[in-house]
Design a protein that fits this description.
about 100 residues, alpha+beta, OB fold (Dihydrolipoamide Acetyltransferase, E2P)
Amino acid sequence: MAAARLTLSVVVLMLAVIALTEGMRGPGPKKCCFRFNEKEVPKAKVVSYSKTSQRCSQSAILLNTAAGRQLCVKPSAAWVKELIAYLDAKAVPGQVSNL
């Protein structure tokens, strides 16, 4: 009888620890990229950008287009760096960046 109580107590304790640690992690990232657009996107078609969460396995930039689409691109690409610099320079003064 004592062995059964001990086993049940250990199982309940393990479940409590698992539930607590899972709850502390919080929800996962909203969007991660696993495939990337390799073709350069014209500046006129991009309205904004954001960086993916650090919790994603690969860092990426999400480009928001005028057509309402989101494209995943690699932040290391030269054309992406130029596009980000262009969008940052075009930003309205006082506007908070979404990075």
